[in-house]
Specification:
- The protein has four helices and 15 strands.
- By secondary structure, the protein is mainly beta.
- It has one domain: SOS response associated peptidase-like (hypothetical protein yedk fold, Alpha-Beta Complex), CATH 3.90.1680.10.
- The strands form three sheets. Strands 3, 4, 7, 8, 11, 12, 13 and 14 form an eight-stranded mixed β-sheet that branches.
- A hairpin with a 6-residue loop joins strand 11 and strand 12.
- The longest helix is centred in the middle third of the chain and has 8 residues.
- One of its GO terms (biological process) is proteolysis.
Length: 194
């Protein structure tokens, strides 16, 4: 599962699709993003498009194995869109966000901590389809996953992040039918980072 990605913040300011968001961002965005750390998302807040730094991983408290105990997991990747927990966020466009990235990693099979990095071939910055919510610890986000495309599948056969085409950014943030976006990004438009 994708639990590591890079973001080159200087690239955001050069891409026309992101200029509107960047103008409202005051802090230096993190470039190496891991779960439980802050990452940058783009969302519409009070009618304005803006970048904000939120924690990556939506906390979900569940019953523990021992009676009377609970365990809190951080959900970074969302696959089960039928779950009531995610459904409420998906149905409300105000809970959707774009998660900008320049590269994402999947663990290399049987290689310990080694990772394989993927990028979109003709884009400096791309975006995952994300959702966010307020939590007791502050706002947090996760992004959707889908079946892997032929490039990612040999590395991670179960899933890959949902990557949006730039022309779909507005529709993801403001439109209906969020499930329609749960499709693999075309592998011919991606490459493995050497």
């Amino acid at each position: 599962m994708c639990n590591h990605y890079h973001n080159l913040p200087e690239a955001l300011a050069t891409i026309e699709a992101w200029k509107e968001y960047v103008s409202h961002f005051d802090e230096a965005p993190p470039t190496d993003v891991w779960p439980k750390r802050k990452g940058v998302i783009a969302r519409i807040t009070d009618g304005e498009r803006r970048l904000e730094a939120l924690q990556w991983g939506v906390p979900l408290t569940m019953k523990g194995k021992r009676p009377g105990t609970t365990v809190t997991k951080r959900i970074t990747n969302v696959r089960n869109l039928k779950s009531n927990f995610w459904r409420s966020m998906l149905e409300r466009p105000e809970n959707r966000c774009l998660v900008p990235f320049t590269q994402f990693a999947e663990p290399k099979p049987n290689a310990g901590r080694e990772e394989v990095w993927f990028t979109i071939s003709d884009a400096d910055v791309s975006a995952f389809a994300g959702i966010w919510r307020e939590t007791e610890e502050g706002p947090a986000y996760a992004f959707l996953t889908c079946d892997p495309n032929p490039l990612v599948k040999p590395i991670h056969p179960k899933a890959m992040p949902v990557i949006l085409q730039p022309e779909d950014y507005d529709r993801w943030l403001e439109g209906d039918a969020a499930e329609a976006f749960q499709e693999p990004f075309p592998s011919q438009l991606m490459s493995i980072v050497p």
